[in-house]
Design a protein that fits this description.
mainly alpha, 7 helices
């Protein structure tokens, strides 16, 4: 049953593309992805993210619900992606709070923790990078 569920989106994309006489390149251009992404989705070697699912449902003129209905892998991917974005956002807030804490000690108590500040800023930079990449996808 799981194999059939996974096939639904890949088969829908392939069927739509062929019935509209579109090449992978043409469909890719319509929704703003690479030809390789379309190929990967059609071969069931990957799945579109939520933004691309919305674009596909608009292009294919079917509801997003009908496109992903019964496909538990896509549903899990969407939920996990949302959880990851929220987690990274909370980590960023926590690291910003630490930087404020370090600044407070530097100005109020004349205690400057340079090593702690550098490590925190480094982690903050990594988290911002990861958050921006996940948030832009």
């Amino acid at each position: 049953m799981k194999g059939m569920e996974k096939m639904q989106i890949s088969k829908s994309i392939l069927d739509y593309r062929k019935s509209n006489n579109l090449s992978q390149e043409q469909l890719a251009n319509k929704i703003g992805v690479s030809r390789q992404a379309i190929s990967k989705w059609e071969q069931d070697k990957g799945a579109p993210d939520i933004e691309n699912l919305i674009l596909l449902s608009d292009e294919m003129n079917i509801s997003l619900d009908n496109l992903i209905k019964g496909n538990s892998n896509i549903k899990k991917q969407i939920v996990n992606n949302e959880k990851a974005v929220k987690f990274h956002f909370l980590v960023i807030l926590f690291l910003v709070a630490i930087v404020i804490y370090i600044a407070y000690f530097a100005f109020v108590h004349d205690i400057f923790m340079i090593g702690f500040l550098i490590a925190t800023l480094f982690m903050l930079g990594i988290e911002l990078y990861v958050y921006m990449r996940k948030h832009s996808n």
